[in-house]
Each structure stands twice: as C-alpha cells, then as structure tokens.
Amino acid sequence: MALVGQEMVNPVTRERLVWRETAASTSGSYCEFDLHLGQGAVVAMPHMHPHQTEEFWVKSGTLRLRIGRQEQTLHAGDERTVAAGTPHAWGNIGAGEAHVVVRLTPALRVEDFFETFCGLGRDGKLSSRGMPRNPLQLAVWAFDFRREMALPSAVAQAFALPFVALLAVIGRLTGYRSRYARYAPRDQ
C-alpha cells in the first residue's frame, strides 16, 4: 500500500510516480498520482482496466493516447477519460519529460501493482519493454492483478486466462509473488 507523497520509480520504463491520493486516503474511492514520463517512455503494452475508469490530465509535455481505435495527441491542459473496459495505450512523444496526473476510480489494488512493477524494474527483472522477464513471475502478477489490468480484448483474455491461471499456480509454488513487499513502506 502506497502512502500520500511516496515516490515509486521504474528505471526500465522511465516512469516516476508520486502518490497524491491513495486507497487509504480516499477510502478506496480512487487513487491519484503524478506520472513523470521520461522522453520516449511508453506503456509496456496496450491494456484495459476492467473495473476502473482512468483519467489523464496533462500538466506538461506531449502525450500520444490511443483509446480504442482512436489516437490523439494531448498537450499541457488537455484532459481525457478512459472508461472501464476500454483498451488504451499511451506514450511520451515530446522532447523531454512529460508530467501527467492520473486518477483510477475505484482504487482497487493499483498501488500494489505499481509497487511490484517498480520493484521488478529496479532489480533488473523487466525486459526492455517493461514486462517481467520470467514467465512465472509475469503469470502470478497478471493473474493476481487481473481486476486492475487486463489484455485489451475479451477474446485474448478468454484464451489467455486459463493458461495464465495455471502458470500462476506453478509460479506461486516456486516462490513467486504478485507483491514485491521489499518496496513497501517499513511500517506496514
């Protein structure tokens, strides 16, 4: 669980998150963070949030946002909302860093997802595209956070989920976990 003001950094994907609001501070209503994207940073893969709305407020820089089949360029001052269950992807296409405020409603376990994502990145366990290198780690992480993040189509999910579930069982038996507790605040 993240704390308001806590910073999480993923050196592989060139993302830095600073938590403005957390599940604890909003009673689970939403979570919100400043997302600082290094030049050329892109989301690891197109995805959707099955049970969450995601809002983007661009504070500086230029963001390419693809929502469904529509692609658009966002600049400072632009805002967009991605409805739950809508495939999307984004990337920093401007020169220098981009700063975007992101809100996910409801919060669910997004903080734990990013804690693990950043921890794996810091330990060199992500590919250059930002995905866990070990398929068992990927399966445990993807299965346990399937309410927060999912493949961008229902067809892909239907085919992948049973396979991911099986790999997740094997992954847990061999010691992989969906949370990277080493990066959780010490008082938890």
Protein described:
It is a single chain. The chain has 188 residues and is an alpha+beta fold. It is 23% helix and 29% strand. It has helices spanning 110-122, 135-144, 154-173, and strands at residues 7-10, 15-21, 31-37, 53-60, 62-67, 70-75, 79-82, 88-92, 98-105. Strands 1-2-3-9-4-7 form a 6-stranded antiparallel β-sheet, covered by helices on one side. The chain has a 3-stranded antiparallel β-sheet with strand order 6-5-8, with no helix packed on it. Helix 2 (135-144) crosses helix 3. It is globular and about 45 Å long. The termini are close together. The model is unreliable at 184-188 (pLDDT under 50).
| Classification by helices and strands | alpha+beta
If you average the pLDDT, what whole number results? 92
Low-confidence stretches: 184-188
- Give the biggest sheet: 6 strands, antiparallel
Rg estimate, integer Å? 16 Å
Categorize the overall geometry: globular
Helix proportion range: 10-25%
Residue share in β-strands: 25-35%
How are the strands of the largest sheet arranged?
A: 1-2-3-9-4-7
- Kindly report how far apart the N and C termini lie: 8 Å
Number of helices: 3
Instruction: Compute the number of strand runs.
Output: 9
The H/E string reads EEEEEEEEEHHH
Brief write-up:
The protein is of the alpha+beta class. 23% of the residues lie in helices and 29% in strands.
Topology:
Layout lengths: L6 E4 L4 E7 L9 E7 L15 E8 L1 E6 L2 E6 L3 E4 L5 E5 L5 E8 L4 H13 L12 H10 L9 H20 L15
